[in-house]
Amino acid sequence: MATTETNNTDLARAEILWKSADTLRGQIDAAEYKHVVLGLLFLKYILLKYISDSFEARCDELEAKSTGSRWSPSGAPDREHTPCVT
Asked: So what's the pLDDT on residue 7?
């Protein structure tokens, strides 16, 4: 029974998404709209393929550089810590 409810909910969401897409598309012909959609898909691909990977790599690099807390127990900045300025 839960599967049927989930399927109905998914179908309702899909219908809402399609109606929203049609509203956003407006009066543009579907043949012309494909250029917009393909451009957005390309940008998402670039984001996921290159930018996300480089961001994760940079985070890992900074985490590896970090030797612990930036602040000493006394509350003064740790002298060994070099802040990352990009």
From this structure: 78
